[in-house]
## 1
Amino acid sequence: MKALQVITAFLISTALLTSLSAQEETDKIATVDMQKLLNDFYKTANTRTEFEGYQDRIQEEDKTRQTTIDALVKEVRKLQQQGEDPSLSRDKKEELFKKAGSKSQEVQALAKERQEWLKRKQAALAEKAKLEFTNLRSEIMAIIQKTGDERGYDFIFDRSGSSGAQVPILAFAKDATDLTGLILELINKDASSSEENSEGEKKSAE
């Protein structure tokens, strides 16, 4: 009985090793640097430029709002200073301080409105950026998957990926082919035509 168990265990072990060995021989593995692909994708540069424009417009509007508030603050101070003039009558002083108080309330309301507006704009911009860059990653992933299918790769790992502890997910892959350069060529093949179209649109606008 024991001899039979030993033989059975040996056969199972041999089968597993044979299976693993065969798997190693058949698996075709490649890697890519997803971070580099995203950074060097021509659409990423265009998207970043677009968002920089959004950010500049938000800052300009915020600057305008702050200028309005600053002007009102100066009015409040001026009214308060006028109300402290000892040569003025009591009624006149009360009138000036009343105006100063009303302006001060307006300042507080505008300052609160500005903060809420800026918070909404920044949140909306962050959400839009998240969506746009997710779409860019999806576009790159589609090219990676297509290339993997066409070239017969079983696995394509992201060398730039890391775990929650910031530890690289892929530390080593034996005989893995780096497809980063090839994928970069594929995702940027339409970059020239895109730039020409952009230049044409600018000239038409002028």
## 2
Amino acid sequence: MNINGVGIPADTTFDERTRIMAVRTTSRAVAATVFATGLLAAGAPAASAIDTSSLAPPPADCAIDAEAIADETPHPIEGVEWAVGEQGNVCGNLGYLFLETEGGTAGSPTQVVLFHRGEQTATQPAGDSRVLLGGESDFHVELRVQQEPEEGDANAEATYASTVYVWNPVTADATAVPLPAGFPS
């Protein structure tokens, strides 16, 4: 037997069919109510407003003094200075400035200074590691930090661990998200 497109066994009594149809109708009504309530809640204003002022455009005079930052950032090797390296999007939501070891090699330490709209927000990493740029956009910078090679191995054999820094407008800071080992960059 087919009642309203719903299959009900033919050997059910009228009372059983009525009860089955009532349960199915009630279930549909409850589901529709839950769905409608979800739609209303999604459209309702939040109880507390989120400050998104950190997403405003940068000031018109936005600029950084990369040489001064290189001079003011301490180098992990005594008597060695930083040289200004690659930079990108320093006046955007999240930008970077690489500080390279003056006269260094491919395995020499690197510092990366992160910026938000021309203001320094973080220096990564702390220590004497080599850092490469893995990728970037207006809201993220991926840094690949060289890991210590095995004893006796050349620096060229070293592996890299990646961390993605994401501009978080809620906290108005760059949030670090370490990627698992072997994660493709």
